[in-house]
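Help: read this over?
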Amino acid sequence: MTSQVGVDTMIKSQSKADIPLPKPRESDPETVAAEIIERLTYGIGKDAKVATPHDWLTATILVVRDRIIDKWMESTRASYDTNSKRVYYLSLEFLIGRLMRDAMSNLGLVEDIREALGSLGVDLDLIAGLEPDAALGNGGLGRLAACFMESMATVDIPAYGYGIRYVHGLFRQQMADGWQVELPETWLAHGNPWEFERRESSYEIGFGGTVDALVGVEEDMRHVWKPNERMIATAYDTPIVGWRGERVNTLRLWSAQPIDPILLDAFNAGDHIGALRESNKAETLTRVLYPADATPAGQELRLRQEYFFCSASLQDILRRHLQQGNELADLADKVAIQLNDTHPAISVVELLRLLCDVHGLDLDDAWEITSKTFSYTNHTLLPEALESWPVPLFERLLPRHMQLVYAVNAKMLIHARKQTDFTDEEIRHISLIDESGDRRVRMGNLAFMGSHSINGVSALHTDLMKQTVFADLHKLFPGRINNKTNGITPRRWLMQCNPGLTNLLRETIGDDFLDDAAKLQQLDGYAEDTGFQQKFAAVKRANKERLAQLVASRMGVRLDPDALFDIQIKRIHEYKRQLLNIIETVALYDQIRSHPERDWVPRVKLFAGKAAPSYHNAKLIIKLANDVARTINNDPSVRGLLKVVFVPNYNVSLAEVMVPAADLSEQISTAGMEASGTGNMKFALNGALTIGTLDGANVEMRDHVGEENIVIFGLTADEVAKIRAEGHNPRATIEASRELSQALSAIQSGVFSPDDRNRFKELIDGIYQHDWFMVAADFDSYAQAQRSVDQTWTDKASWYAKTIRNTARMGWFSSDRTIRQYAEEIWRA
């Protein structure tokens, strides 16, 4: 294997004058059209007369890519020449979606490419819709990472994103009689023209084995880890283009390769399956995002994945740092590593191992460098979501790392003991080893201890972190927790997904908002303007027609674009309370049938999202939504006043259609449980009214858009905590609410599941017995809020004034603002 250092040395040995730089390509339509034909002919081997739409797509991507590479190399040269500080963003997910339109838009090439393809008889929109949606993420965490990568390039921060090149990623979701079915996502089946394999950036990754201790001449003890299992991590780079193409950064994803692809002795002896076991083991590692961890084998695979990509990334980071002539002692001055949740937390002890065992530093010096280099973003207040690993599993797979965990733990606990006001209980909470049951390594605590900065992702979430999951660590390190409220990139989530609204904004307030989302505030003065409201409404209706066409083509369900489109799209989880939405839908259904004389607002309830394969209740909620949809949509007595649709296989591309079409955005999580949310920001930016609890970033959204322009209901986080502490009697709450009682009874008794009347009994029993997610407690408030939405909808001038103000006042929630705060306050980049 050729080392990266060797390649770079060979390049540096040549005079720069000997290597002429390529001339940047022109982008006029005539030049672009000629290059597309050239790529089609010589890159794909197709005559234009017989080229398929996929051939045209690939040729167009390659032509766009050439223009990105010019900027990419320019950005890389500038970073090397200045030896500037780099940011490394480690994330198990990067939900980047389709890249062609994003890249064309950021480079200002959309119209030139459209004209070039049109001259060749090809429709840009048709081929752009064929691009696979990269299956590299699950939900908000992965999409946030993608937004951050684009914003880092936009605000000119040299950065790498590091993750895994999943062959299948998250599953493709289909419905079989209303049940979720998981199928492999085959986004890489025909290659990926955006990526570049970097064989020279390959690193050995080990698992298992033994650790030997060697005593040096000065009695210093060195440790040598001898893994009994090894594989190779090989880099694949994808360029990430910033707005107007001023900087192009790198998303580096790791693929696992066996050291010995085939054991020839075994193969020749007839053991054809056994001969490939090393190859299969490596390939398995990077096949699937979030393998089900309900079994020991699933847990082991997930831990292997996390260590694999973290070790490869850190080896790569140290190699680059030293190659540029820097010292390890200066690592934190040149490198900032951001851990996106606890998945990459193993990086803390891996960097310790590399510094101590490979580069010869002592533990105290290595720990000081490590804690100054890392920072950690927490995304959850759910204790079960803060990863922990059984000690026997951790020690078997990573024996040297287990030693370092114990060493760090001793260091931290001794430090805590010196703080005389720490109780034994607080010491137990701080420990890296949870001993309340089977002993487990706490990855959240490890990430906290090994980082100089720990940030929440909304003001409320950050305050709650200090009071709940990290209360004792916050007491030990009181200055470390800070807030960085999430944001979204307006390029993807306004300019690209909603060109109709973008064009209307440009002709109304000019182009300044394209470069600074805060300038959207200028739209505020048009909120009451009747003429502008009509144009705004026309854009919204066109977006709803587009979504209606998608639903009709995929599902055969006809939607009325004049109805209120009420949309909840996100990962299916009990705390996100799709169940509350469905129960209120059932109650509304009962009311429409019981009171046909009332003037009901026509409403379409749209759901989308995936449930984790082993999450029984989440999958049951999907089935309930589909069963309710089947009953309501086939009932003529509803007269088209209510329709329910669960759209399968939610991904970025589907969100880009659903978000601009929403009239009402459902952000109804149990207060105190959603860290931030970014879907709420996307909807509001595109002119939807939010109905939600005071949870996550909803609190700050209310403050920015004005409490009269958002619909807030339900218990606050403090009230939820108080009710849980004092005891909640959900049965009494249910019996006091006629609508809720009737809706729960209908679901529980099998009205929507005549083929299995007990299907949802256990799900509803959970509400009666404990109602942990406060579905019953918040139902009446939610139902009342929904009827207030109906009243506002009937007053169209009031409705559009509110939704226009949402668009106008959402500029602060740009991920550019968030990244600037990270850069100034955490990374010092």
User: Anything to note?
Assistant: Residues 1-14 have pLDDT under 50 and may be disordered. Residues 19-82+101-130 form one domain. The longest helix spans residues 53-82.
